[in-house]
Design goal:
The structure is a homodimer. By secondary structure, chain A is of the alpha+beta class. Helix content of chain A is 24%, strand content 26%. In chain A, strands 1, 2, 3, 4, 5, 6, 7, 8, 9 and 10 form a 10-stranded mixed β-sheet that branches. In chain A, strand 2 and strand 3 form a beta hairpin. The interface between A and B is large, with 46 and 46 residues.
Chain lengths: 279, 279
């Protein structure tokens, strides 16, 4: 058996999320179905992040054990030849014995895109949340800074099971205005006064709907329904109803997953490759 | 009656092109159907460019005469409330009597996106042509320069009727590598060694499939099937079979339409607004 690390990119629009469910089109089941004829037996993959229905991924990571001796580049070609075009295997690497993409993930980074304007450009509609009001970026940045650290994020969790309690560590939470000159946004959507905002958050892990509840709350700050100081108060309240609404799934992308556990990353080279996208 | 100038953005994926056709979903018919209940009578709009099936637009321009006294901002809201999400009215302005979006267009600018890599990122697949070979950008730029000027482009025309012969003036034809730092591409597709190339061409008008035949030919130059000097030879041959293949529709976007005819643009302000997107 070989242990493999797959890096996957997908558009979440037509998927009922990552996790296998009976009679639903999920990323996990589509990838497992593509692996099965190659392996000659049913295959189970473990994803680093169980993305919700509609959430995209640029650098999802999955681990899998296979007994087929097929070379890795051939395996990648075979998979991408079978998979539907809304999911792609971006890279396949050999992983150390015991590599588990979920359990060993050290950091995950998510991005959330918001388009702020009266009109939503059609070419952005599947990947950005359309917000019609002006947002106060300085207030959103001040509020985001109060999220950084090791905290109980239960006020930003939707009902549902999460592994290991509700304390998580957020390493960074930033808002940027992607430069429109030369950007894809300009290719699709340089219309009028619209502004694209990008939120990026890195943490040791995230509770169910946590990033989307954070974005919904930060947008409430941006439109002056809340003040930046309210975010610390909401965290302390441990009350989900104190936070803002859950932002829609289609603005969210699982951007990358980092692994640096030296027991599983034998060399600097592998450690480096485990970090996924470096931009 | 008021003459109006509409600026439209659409994703071409699910449209059989711009032009009204019986029993086909086209941009013209969808917009005309949205206008009809507001006007209380059938409406005909004139588009600056008759984009093909699958071709997108960031700044298509259409002219229309309406007798309804509805204020323009209300008209825009009403249209965008009715239209499907893959087409949006980005702007509506009053136009001088006699304004005809097609006949008076002075320049049109198209953009074409190419993703060069083994793997196509799912989030780019509807807007960029996936090319699996490496492209020689310097050769493509040299070849593009030979297209600039007033020339007979019949060798780059597909069979079909065009207004006014086959001589057109190309004002610029450039290739750029959109900066990936901070770009939407980075949000969706910063994977491995993939490169996004953007072709932009501005001209007084374009023959049927002309931009796509030019892109297909320039890609043949980029992969060394042709040399840059061949493009001048192909132009001179006036033979469509001498040129390269027609690049697929989904990489192409009608980017903007410029109007500067002083008979139809009464003031500097209107002239300015007629130029559409300025980036």
């Amino acid at each position: 058996m070989r242990n493999l690390k797959l890096t996957l990119s997908y558009e979440g629009t037509d998927f009922a999320g990552w996790q296998r469910q009976p009679d639903r089109r999920t990323v996990q089941s589509v990838v497992e179905s593509a692996l099965e004829p190659i392996e000659g037996a049913p295959v189970t993959i473990i994803g680093a992040g169980r993305t919700d229905a509609g959430v995209h991924a640029a650098g999802q990571v999955a681990s899998v054990s296979l007994s087929t001796p097929i070379p890795l580049d051939e395996l990648q070609r075979a998979l991408n030849g079978t998979l539907p075009p809304d999911v792609r295997v971006i890279a396949i690497e050999t992983a150390p014995i015991g590599f588990d993409a979920r359990r060993l993930a050290r950091h995950k980074t998510y991005r959330y895109l918001i388009w702020s304007d009266a009109t939503m450009p059609p070419l952005l509609r599947r990947v950005a949340w359309h917000v019609t009001y002006r947002l106060d970026l300085a207030a959103m940045r001040a509020a985001s800074a109060t999220l950084v650290g090791r905290r109980d994020f239960v006020a930003f969790r939707s009902a549902g099971a999460d592994d290991g309690g509700s304390v998580r560590e957020v390493l960074s939470a930033t808002w940027t205005l992607p430069d429109r000159a030369g950007a894809f946004v300009e290719d699709c959507a340089a219309v009028g006064d619209g502004i694209l905002l990008r939120f990026e958050i890195t943490g040791t892990g995230f509770l169910r709907h946590m990033v989307r509840a954070i974005v919904g709350t930060l947008v409430d700050v941006g439109r002056a329904r809340l003040i930046p100081e309210d975010v610390a108060r909401i965290l302390a309240s441990q009350d989900r109803s104190a936070a803002g609404p859950t932002a829609p799934a289609h603005g969210l992308t699982l951007w990358r997953v980092d692994y640096t556990d030296s027991r599983y990353s034998g060399t600097e080279g592998i450690i480096h490759r485990f970090t996924g996208f470096t931009g």
